[in-house]
């Protein structure tokens, strides 16, 4: 692990910060910093401004996007940087809350820096690019008892998965045997080769900091990577699985209290992982019995089949008898006594199928408290109005969830089945443990 330095002596390289206990006055404004303010980050900028936070500083590699923060009333004096390390160096002592919404490969270092400094941290999904990074952030959160955290899977603040939980706990489908989850992603290039050549780097763009901890490569224009197509590139993104599973499989982890997968394996791949993830894949995971519930399996479907068809499960008979088909994205839950369909990405519409059985069962009894909203629960915990665990997609939940999700990408990269112990260590081929971590490029470790 990195050496510890004082937070005022931040230098580039593998450094860490000591914990700082921050007693937040509930009546004062939270001071916020942002690592990225454009693209998806704009939603967090807007929610923070609406909630009355005060922006102290931000880091955004694309100066053309700086207006996302500076354009907010009352924030025009915030200090902007292209390098997140400078933001922490110069303003770490003043910041109460940090939002990290960079591409996947650069989530870990600023998030770990924030948590280590005692700064509340909200990080976009997936929490990290690698399995090991997610495990390390979970450990850091467990150690820093005064830090509030949240991962950006906003559907976790909705009531959909809670209703699904109440159906399952109410016996509507019996014991769960299988979850089948599918997505209409990728909607960006996957399955292709690395772009050749290089282009001039725009004057307002910090390519060095955009690459961050990943291996350096030449800049390519025409939106080859920035601002969106990085998602399918294995060095930077996590493919469709990393992009969407934190939404579409969220209910599985929330309902089942999964623990680490026992096995993860690629059932179908349209090709190996090269510069990009394959254009289609199906991944199976198995989970152990726990606390009286039986073990179960999950199946993830993305992209296209080798024949070019949408990769998704077959429509079950329980839908066809009602004259319906599977939606283009969602979950099918198969139990010993019935089935449940959840349409969409965010667990918004769980229902027992077929319709006759849904009517017969009726609405389940409410068992869970509803959330005031994904961002709001985070802000309430940061202000001390609620305990830190009130921010429910905190790193103790989202860390193992992200690690399990990234195990899917790891088995695809390895091209083989992975077996794990209950602590998440790979046991059948220990060399794959080395693939679960990537040493950050010099200067970009936390």
Average pLDDT value?
Answer: 94
Helix and strand content put the structural class at alpha/beta
Percent range of helical residues = 25-40%
Distance between the termini: 10 Å
Largest sheet: 8 strands, mixed
Strand content: 15-25%
Number of helical segments with 4 or more residues: 14
Topology:
Elements: E1 3-4, E2 15-16, E3 31-35, H1 41-50, E4 54-59, H2 67-70, E5 79-81, H3 84-91, E6 97-100, H4 108-116, E7 120-124, H5 131-143, E8 149-152, H6 160-169, E9 176-182, H7 207-211, H8 239-248, H9 250-256, E10 263-269, E11 280-287, E12 296-303, H10 317-320, E13 330-335, E14 339-343, E15 349-353, H11 355-361, H12 374-382, H13 395-414, E16 418-419, H14 431-435
Parallel strand pairs: 1-2, 3-4, 3-6, 4-5, 6-7, 7-8, 9-12
Antiparallel strand pairs: 9-13, 10-11, 10-16, 11-12, 13-14, 14-15
Helix pairs in contact: 4-5, 5-13, 6-9, 8-13
Summary tags:
446 residues; single chain; 18% strand; disordered N terminus; 14 helices; alpha/beta; eight-stranded mixed beta sheet; six-stranded parallel beta sheet
How would you characterize this protein structure?
This protein has 446 residues and is an alpha/beta fold. Helix content is 27%, strand content 18%. It has helices at 41-50, 67-70, 84-91, 108-116, 131-143, 160-169, 207-211, 239-248, 250-256, 317-320, 355-361, 374-382, 395-414, 431-435; strands at 3-4, 15-16, 31-35, 54-59, 79-81, 97-100, 120-124, 149-152, 176-182, 263-269, 280-287, 296-303, 330-335, 339-343, 349-353, 418-419. The strands form 3 sheets. An 8-stranded mixed beta sheet has the order 15-14-13-9-12-11-10-16. A hairpin with an 8-residue loop joins β11 and β12.
